[in-house]
Amino acid sequence: MAESVGAVTPQRLHCPEPLLLACGVPLAHFDLVYETYGVLNAQRSNAILICHALSGTHHVAGHYAGQPRSSGWWDNMVGPGKPVDTNRFFVIGVNNLGGCDGSTGPSSLDPATGHPYGPHFPFVTVEDWVRAQARLADHLQIARFAAVMGGSLGGMQALQWSLTYPERLRHAIVIAAAPNLSAQNIGFNEVARQAITTDPDFYGGNYYARGVIPERGLRLARMLGHITYLSDDAMMEKFGRDLLANAPHFSLDVEFEIESYLRYQGKKFSERFDANTYLIMTKALDYFDPALAHGGHLSKALARARADFLVVSFTSDWRFSPARSREIVKALLDNGLAVSYAEIDSSQGHDAFLMENPDYFAVMQAYLTRVFEALPHA
Amino acid sequence: MAESVGAVTPQRLHCPEPLLLACGVPLAHFDLVYETYGVLNAQRSNAILICHALSGTHHVAGHYAGQPRSSGWWDNMVGPGKPVDTNRFFVIGVNNLGGCDGSTGPSSLDPATGHPYGPHFPFVTVEDWVRAQARLADHLQIARFAAVMGGSLGGMQALQWSLTYPERLRHAIVIAAAPNLSAQNIGFNEVARQAITTDPDFYGGNYYARGVIPERGLRLARMLGHITYLSDDAMMEKFGRDLLANAPHFSLDVEFEIESYLRYQGKKFSERFDANTYLIMTKALDYFDPALAHGGHLSKALARARADFLVVSFTSDWRFSPARSREIVKALLDNGLAVSYAEIDSSQGHDAFLMENPDYFAVMQAYLTRVFEALPHA
């Protein structure tokens, strides 16, 4: 097992210039919280930006001092000797605008009022995130990333980087993503949103001042999410129809293992995640659709891209199935771009992008070695 | 288009003898509401029992007098000249015990208290339903059904009939069903249950006296249900990513067509269905597992069956996939039973069992013609 990057410390960037969001609202100023791992080389050419998914954070790798169990969410992928090798690359994790882990979002205090933004925080899109992330790149004086990468919603950001700033990344690594959400995907998001917004403790998003959170809604949203992150097969392997007790007890108490798991995941999530952020993040997912402005033609939408691409999908991912990744691959090939595509055999469902899998990690390691060796070096 | 059975009238059977339920509770007496279509022949051999699914009722075909839009839920399948031909068969639809459409259930008045049973109504199982339905068969003096049939949870009842009363049915028609629920299936049910039971208007199931219903929870349960009844493809065909307006409006109001559809379905359902019944029905689904008492060996569990079988599945049904139906087929064949199996090509998902589809209806028509022609006739 490769080692970890060790103890890490988040940093904060204050961006004083306004950012005009896709929804038309100018955000006067904002903060981004981020972490970095590895060392930026003299040419400033070895930076990799890692974009997080729905519930991810800037804490990608390593742990916080004195908290050995606080591992980053992609600690298996990022570190010395790991596929995203911090001996080679300068790696950046950033909490997205609208988030709830330090970057400016609905739970942040609005300087204009001294109260949390709450439901008044503007809707942000994948495009907005990319433009905010570019402010961080400017601050770190990174003119061009070696790669921008991410899984799920993070993969959508990597794809968007190749469209918004085609010259600012050499490679885009798009994992377990899709060119847009299907009606089914939007439907699941809508159930989650309705669970939150109809929770009497939501108060139209103004729950902060009341000392409550829409905990029931957040739990339901996360339980539902977890079902869609796992495959039917993975759930059967992990939980089957196992009962906590020996026999059905004919009550509404938890009795199947899968119920226990989902309730636990829901509870844990409701204790750490902001409901308004969850709403904003799911809407950003729903809205993402680069082909929309091109009459639905993804190939036309991706004509601006200049990066080389690695696209990765997982066979049992029914949230963003391999067929959705192949749509991206086809559109990139239509534009004559260099595309590597790996469809990884896995029973883990959508969550596979977060898990160690020899085939997956070998593909990542090989591709990123190629990225590294082609860099302009000292 | 074949004609309808026309105006129909529900009937009520009071069963005064106690029924010992699988949960160990004796139900002192109960009512079953049912409808019949067609004429029972002199040999009483042409009866078909139709078992309903999660949210179905006894109102299978025809309409209520003066209410032309009150068509039964399987009116396309059951009627004169239709696959379940009421010119040939005497067809029975019955609301299950624990239901909310007239048969004794949680919203019924408990004669002992004069108040609704509410959360004190005992949990019922598929086995209990079959035993209750047998009381109705006794009352109608039907010693042996020509067929017992149903889709989804209704198919599970048809399968259970072949095990509880092997000599009381000639044919079992098991459509879009499974030999038990997968962990994913149970997970979805559990999210629905948590949505209902954590709704502040649920009051532990004692909401009747308070003049409220856990409407939020019921809406969420039904929205989620609908997503699992449709295939991803069917939802894309029907709704796509279409917006109600021309452009995103960056709010939490409904904006995608699929959101509008799900909210409408949720609202409609919450106005007609009892929450305690929903909880009981989903638990009956979760518990159904005839193989459990046989060490998980489905073939051993089905050794008691004597009926001939028609098993039908639909290619895009991801709730109860064709693979689950094939498990039933294999176990029946292991026992040397006569099994016909049709895997119908459909993009409609689980809901396909309710929809007119030429291949599906041709299979049903052909099979039921064979059932009819082999009956002991006058």
The fraction of residues assigned to DSSP E strands of chain A is 15-25%
Largest interface: A-B, 53 and 53 residues
Low-confidence stretches of chain A: none
How would you describe the oligomerization state of the chains in this entry? homodimer
Q: Based on DSSP secondary structure assignment, what is the total number of beta strands of chain A?
A: 12
What structural class should be given to the helix and strand makeup of chain A? alpha/beta
**How many distinct helices of chain A?**
10
Q: How confident is the prediction overall: mean pLDDT of chain A?
A: 96
- Strand order, main sheet of chain A: write it out: 1-4-8-5-9-10-11-12
Q: What helical percentage do the residues of chain A reach?
A: 25-40%
Shape of chain A: globular
Order of H and E elements of chain A: EEEEEEEEHEHEHHHHHHEHEH
What does the radius of gyration of chain A come to?
Answer: 20 Å
Distance between the termini of chain A: 30 Å
Q: How is the main sheet of chain A built?
A: 8 strands, mixed
Q: Describe it for me?
A:
Chain A is an alpha/beta fold. Helix content of chain A is 33%, strand content 15%. Chain A has ten helices and twelve strands. Chain A has an eight-stranded mixed beta sheet with strand order 1-4-8-5-9-10-11-12, sandwiched between helices. In chain A, strands 2-3 form a two-stranded antiparallel ribbon. In chain A, helix 3 packs antiparallel against helix 7 (275-287) and helix 4 (215-229) packs across helix 6 (257-270). The model of chain A has no long low-confidence stretch (mean pLDDT 96).
